[in-house]
UniProtKB/TrEMBL annotation:
It comes from Ovis ammon polii. InterPro entries: SET-MYND_domain_protein, SET_dom, SET_dom_sf, SMYD4_SET, TPR-like_helical_dom_sf, Znf_MYND. The keyword Transferase applies. Residues 296-335 form the MYND-type domain. GO terms for biological process: heart development; methylation. CDD domains: SET_SMYD4. This is Protein-lysine N-methyltransferase SMYD4.
Length: 802
């Protein structure tokens, strides 16, 4: 997903392998990114571009009225089957494929409003009704739409507006003799019902939605850092020749304190599993919803009712505002390149968008540096007689270059030492040019050049068909031709930076079957982004912070007490609770180019063969742990049992397969079958795995889910408590994993009406989750709702009457 599709990757790698040795050497040893780019770019032939074009042709990114009809019909089927969620998704796909101001789009919006109505999303439903009308919803169908509008307004407690809608409706009835008698009767009846409701509502005081009055309390930094906007004043920026830039605590920091709150400089929504395949009538249009269908392409907010870009079918937004902002800042250029960007991967897309966003930043300074001081860091401008024209960034003269460099003490900071979240900071993230393999650099450079050629071809057109020509001034458009190389070099730099600096924006996704009442959640990757401040943090396999996201905003909180002078660390992925030291170090070396020497790594290196003890095997006779390498022998005092590791490992693999099969049954709602299988797995696991083995935890967790789905809360709680013990051993009592597990247990107790147990667990879950997420978190708000509901249920001690 991050890198280009496999077909293009192997094509380019083959091209590389066929290059004469001398050219390979020239590219491998290119001293600057500029040289790397120019040498690689020169090798990109028209036939290569043709191949890429054919590959891109497999993605459906344009609008297609046939698709609009197809999705609307599929949506209607789901609607009839009362699957309103599924219907909304399909109508959204229909919306994306219809042109503006067409009957198609108005019908899709109107149908989606009906689905949203049934889902209880009244505000969104109203918006879709307005959209349907705006795009020319047919007159003859208006009464139905107006009725729905009136019902929404009543439900939302807006009786005045509802009355007005009814007046409109009645006059529209009078003007519509075309309505058949039966249709008229149905409408009349519904109208009567709504009128009664309006009357009822009018007698009630107006209710204001509670959510609107809430603020983002606890979401703000207590005191912002003057040197690093977006970071708390409890940290400071240091630099060290070995470690590079890093953050250090300036005072003792308590668990849960917010240390960084930063909006991404750039983010690109991961499109999800978009199938790349040749057109065929059967499977031309994808019915499955991907994350690209359910999240705003700008702010990443989840939405069931996206509005599409008017020019393509793949860019969708939560609102008109997001659509306009995206268009003004980058999408006007990206719109026609959708298929190409899907083919070249998310890294290439992030690289392009970074440079597009930079046009609106104060980048004159950056480019001056680009001309000057950066030349020794691998970026260097092509010779140009008029540097002021380059990129049209600023009026940077060539005269004032190198001496300015000395004034900046830390890369990425301005001359006052301030580290700002702008293009300058992004530009200074390390590309690690010398660490990447020549093949990887060639792949990136060729992909970026192909993108540049397309930009050049689409260029003028893309910029001039801007919907709001005033927003994109001519002076801000990139200059085509030779200067496009500067864009190319900048994009190449970003692409190389991304391997080490890309931050995955993740979200918690519900994965359980619809019947399951307790949350089965999975952390999924939503977008790829660059965060200048978050990028300053170094890695530890046992970090002292926890990162979470709200839309494109990252927050980092202390997950434990951090003493003044200690470094602020977060985990790049390989966490000590998830993998052994050898695997972690290998991963970090190959992706991030460093050898981890964090305390857990140093500790585990001392006894490398031991591995995580909790994943141990045990003796089937006496239950004592087995020890040894290839042949394990029992550690029990009077036992002589021994067994080969191979045998145990293959038994474990079989067991894991069984568990996987059971989980699949569980997801598909075959609960009895799942339980039967899981109980078998459980007794099998008991005979050869330690009680804290992660597979044991998985089995208990799945059993808990299955019983919860059956409504057997007591059994569910028993299994969940066992799973909780395993999670605690692996991740620690205050880990975020523990928080999620406690949340599930709270739900089970809550549903089973075990009031004291539920209250006790809610309190524990809240305490753990608050540290990691702060108060503005869905799970925490859910816990609070459960708590207040339970407190209402508790018998109130009756005092003497006054
Ligand atoms: Zn949005
Ligand atoms: Zn578009
Ligand atoms: Zn480590
Ligand atoms: Zn034994």
């Amino acid at each position: 997903m991050d890198l280009p599709v496999d077909e293009w990757k192997s094509y380019v790698l083959q091209k590389w392998s066929l290059l004469p040795k001398s050219i390979q050497v020239t590219i491998s040893t290119a001293e600057t990114l500029n040289d790397l780019f120019l040498h690689s770019s020169a090798l990109l032939q028209p036939e290569d571009e043709m191949f890429l074009k054919r590959l891109s042709g497999g993605y459906v990114v344009g609008k297609d009225p046939d698709a609009s009809l197809f999705y609307r019909e599929k949506g209607n089927k789901k609607f009839q089957a009362k699957d309103y969620m599924g219907a909304a998704v399909l109508y959204s796909k229909g919306v994306s494929h219809s042109g503006p101001n067409s009957t198609d789009i108005s019908l899709c919006y109107a149908n989606r409003s009906a689905a949203l109505f049934h889902l209880g999303q009244y505000e969104t439903c109203l918006k879709d009704i307005v959209r349907a009308q705006m795009h020319g919803y047919p007159e003859r169908l208006q009464p139905k739409l107006l009725l729905r509008k009136a019902e929404c307004l009543v439900t939302l407690g807006r009786p005045q507006e509802a009355s007005q809608t009814i007046i409109d409706l009645e006059s529209s009835f009078a003007a519509k003799p075309t309505l058949s008698a039966s249709q008229f009767q149905i409408l009349q009846r519904t109208l009567c019902r709504v009128k009664v409701k309006v009357q009822e509502k009018k007698n009630l005081p107006e209710i204001f939605p509670e959510a609107l009055t809430k603020t983002f309390e606890g979401m703000d930094l207590r005191e912002e850092n003057e040197q690093i906007p977006g970071a708390s004043s409890s940290v400071t920026l240091h630099i060290d020749p070995l470690k590079g830039r890093f953050l250090v605590a300036t005072k003792d920091i308590l668990p849960g304190e917010l240390l960084v709150k930063e909006d991404a400089f750039v983010s690109v929504l991961n499109p999800g599993e978009v199938p790349l395949r040749p057109h065929s009538l059967e499977s031309k249009w994808e019915i499955q919803a991907t994350s690209g269908d359910l999240h705003c392409h700008r702010c990443l907010r989840h939405t069931l009712a996206p509005v599409p870009c008017e020019g393509c079918s793949y860019a969708k937004y939560c609102s008109q505002e997001c659509m306009q902002q995206a268009w003004d800042r980058y999408h006007s250029v990206e719109c026609s390149l959708g298929a190409l960007l899907l083919t070249l991967g998310v890294f290439c897309h992030v690289a392009l968008r970074s440079t597009l966003l930079a046009r609106f930043e104060d980048v004159g300074k950056v480019i001056k540096k680009l001309c000057g001081e950066m030349s020794n860091q691998g970026i260097c401008l092509p010779e140009s007689k008029n540097p002021a024209q380059i990129l049209k960034y600023g009026q940077g003269g060539e005269g004032e270059k190198t001496d300015k460099a000395v004034e900046t003490p830390i890369p990425g900071c301005d001359i006052n030492g301030k580290y700002e979240r702008n293009y300058n900071a992004i530009f200074h993230l390390l590309p690690h040019t010398e660490n990447h393999s020549p093949e990887y650099k060639f792949l990136c450079a060729v992909s970026v050049s192909a993108l540049c050629r397309q930009l050049e071809a689409a260029g003028l057109q893309a910029f001039t068909t801007d919907l709001k020509p005033t927003k994109l001034k001519a002076a801000e458009t990139p200059v085509l031709g030779a200067e496009l190389n500067v864009w190319g070099v900048a994009m190449l730099r970003h692409m190389l930076q991304l391997q080490c600096n890309a931050q995955a924006i993740t979200t918690i996704q519900q994965t359980g079957s619809k019947e399951s009442l307790i949350a089965d959640t999975r952390r999924v990757r939503l977008a790829t982004a660059l965060f200048p401040v978050v990028s300053l943090l170094n890695h530890s396999c046992s970090p002292n912070t926890s990162v979470s996201f709200i839309g494109t905003i990252a927050t980092i909180r202390a997950s434990q007490l951090i003493r003044s002078g200690q470094e602020i660390l977060h985990c790049y992925g390989p966490h000590e609770s998830r993998m052994g030291v050898a695997e972690r170090r290998q991963k970090l070396r190959s992706q991030y180019f460093f050898d981890c020497d964090c305390p857990p790594c140093e500790r585990e290196k001392q006894r490398p063969s031991a591995g995580p003890g909790r994943e141990a095997f045990r003796c089937h006779r006496c239950r004592a742990l087995l020890q040894g390498d290839d042949v394990l022998s029992c550690s029990g005092p009077a036992c002589t049992e021994s067994v080969g590791r191979d045998l145990l490992v293959s038994r474990l693999q079989d067991l894991q397969q069984q568990v996987g099969a059971a989980q699949k049954h569980l997801r598909n709602g075959r609960l009895e079958l799942a339980i039967q299988l899981l109980l078998g797995c459980q007794s099998d696991a008991e005979s050869f795995l330690s009680a804290e083995h992660s597979v044991v935890g998985e089995i208990e967790d799945a059993l808990a889910q299955a019983y919860a789905a059956l409504g057997d809360w007591e059994k569910s709680a028993t299994h969940l408590q066992k799973s909780l013990q395993v999670v605690e051993v692996h991740h620690g009592p205050s880990s975020v994993e523990m928080g999620h597990e406690l949340f599930k247990l709270a739900q089970v107790f809550f549903n089973g009406c075990a009031i004291p147990e539920a209250l006790n667990t809610i309190q524990k879950a809240e305490k753990v989750l608050l540290v990691h997420y702060g108060p503005w978190n869905d799970e925490i708000r859910e816990l609070q709702k459960m708590k207040s509901c339970l407190l209402d249920l508790l018998p109130i001690p009756v005092g003497p009457k006054e």
